[in-house]
What does this fold into?
Amino acid sequence: MSSEKKKDRRQILEERHYPINWEISEGEICITDYYNKKLSKDHDVYQHELSFIEEEISSMRFSGEICCM
It folds into this structure.
């Protein structure tokens, strides 16, 4: 996939879902998008943000907002 197509895909995801909110709920990471839709664990945005959220958790932050990819 070319970098142009990746950029387009990224822009589309940002327009559809960001900003997103995340929190720990019942021991699980829960991510909701701009429209308050819960994102599944296999969703592209969930997968993209998972490492960042895990870093936040290790810094003792258990919820937050992410404004862009």
About this structure: The mean pLDDT is 93. The helical segments are 3-17, 44-58. The radius of gyration is 12 Å.
